[in-house]
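job 3f2a | input accepted
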Amino acid sequence: MGTPHYPQGIGDLISGLRRDVQAARTQAQSRLPFRRIKVALLELFGNLAVRAGGTITVDNSAGSTIAAIGNLGQASGQTIWGMRLARPDGSDALIVYGAPNGDLTFVAIKDKLGNIVVSDDGLSGQGLATPYVPYGPLSMSATDTNFQKLPASTSSSFETLLEGVVPLTHPRIRVQIFWQCDNTALSGDGRLLINGHQIGSTVAANNGDSAFLDGIYDIPGWGDSVSYLQEAYLEVQARRTAGTGGGIRCAVYSLYGVQS
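job 3f2a | predicted structure (260 res):
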């Protein structure tokens, strides 16, 4: 028998047909549900679509789900879609979700105990839901010298001149409080209490002078007896330590939470 005479380029044609058949087979198989892909690295050049209520999850070696994107389950009778990122123990760290009709839309960051520390206001669609940020405090003008407008103490024991209840949102507090004696014959002390615990030191306004409590201080019991958003009772106190004919007065210029 003689040597067959194949058409020119038949090798390339056969290789092309093999590639087309393999591509068609891969495409057909990819349309079937699959449970697991075991690869060291999976690269996708193009779009990856998860439909029909599917979810992409990432589990760590301990079996905890640390990421989920897609269908996150049911809430108030509606399917919730979004993204959830968790800490290694599986507890929520960041959640972004909502229903397809726009209800239950929510973005939140949680601490290790599950408290929502930062979240948007899903109901109105703008601004913060948490943390609660106080507006103020407001006090008399710093250029006003008529201190008679301010509350005063003439007692030799500490008495509360200003008080209020606030939600605690941070482990520390920024403080600026001012005390002033009525005349040069007077001296007095001032202090700040949170839930009965003194914050910072006692400051002294001697011989008619003024005094400031100015600094950043730890919240007593934070993370132990005091939890996030727990309401606390604040008191600004004063006492007269020397002199007569007047008292020691106070004004608050700054009280807000700061980080550790």
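job 3f2a | The chain has a mean pLDDT of 83.
job 3f2a | closed
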